[in-house]
Design a protein that fits this description.
The longest helix is centred in the C-terminal third of the chain and has 36 residues. Helix 9 packs antiparallel against helix 10 and helix 13 crosses helix 15. This protein is mainly α and 300 residues long. The protein contains 15 helices and no strands. Helices cover 72% and strands 0% of the residues. It is globular.
Amino acid sequence: MTAHAKRSKKVKHSLGDRIFSVFNHILLGFLALACIFPLFYVFMYSITPYNEYLANPLRLFPPEITLTAYKELLTFPLMKTGYFSTLFVTVIGTALNIFLLCITAYPLSKRNLKGRNIIMALITFTMFFNGGMIPNYMLVRELHLLDTYWALIFPGAISAYNLILMRNFVSAIPSSLEEAAYIDGANELQILGRVIVPLCKPAIATFTLFHAVGHWNSYFNATMYINDRNKWPLMLIVREMVAESGTNMVHQSATVMEDLAQPFTLQMAVIIFTIIPILCVYPFVQKYFMQGMLMGSVKG
């Protein structure tokens, strides 16, 4: 193909289109900086000596770097147990969420399923009404789930909103693919595992991210169901340290150091310490994120 043919295929933009594009880039760049700046601010002050912070609170680039706050966090026993608790709940809970989404959305996508509309109405009803906090607590207690990790997993095992989106995504898959699998002798489970699930990778990746972030950031259920401090999830420990100024817990349990981190620096460090795993996971599912949400929300 000649250079002239390549140039002829290029779309010509008017002056107004170019101005609009530049404005969009500037606006989106500003919004991106507004989102990144708080994280950058927290990280910088987590490695800044406290006396440097007091000397110039607005300085973003410290003249000296210290990792004292992170060293103290690593000596805090609750941080280790909190990481284990949160990882267990996040991994097992997210796997259960995705499993239930797949095996529930697939049959509900069948238009010939008897009682399909009634089932969907009942599921939709739970989006707006539920038993409330006290009945939920009584249910968890009667099931003997108090002070167990399962109390943080089972109550939110499936989301009605995500189920509706997943059902819509599965409904958008051409039925001819299922018919071809039937002709080849596949049963329903084989079709689900070998045809539907591979085609639902964008939706599954999107909901995996949603549920993983939800489990990772959850702390309210733990305040109700978990009394054993050694089973506290990470965010409940962070809440006590940051919101309730509980950084003295770390100082009391830390080994003797010449220079203990100040509460402010320790609070900044614990925030960074807890968001790193989610930041590492997001780039791997980002390419599926928009595709999954758009395809799941088009067809009702």
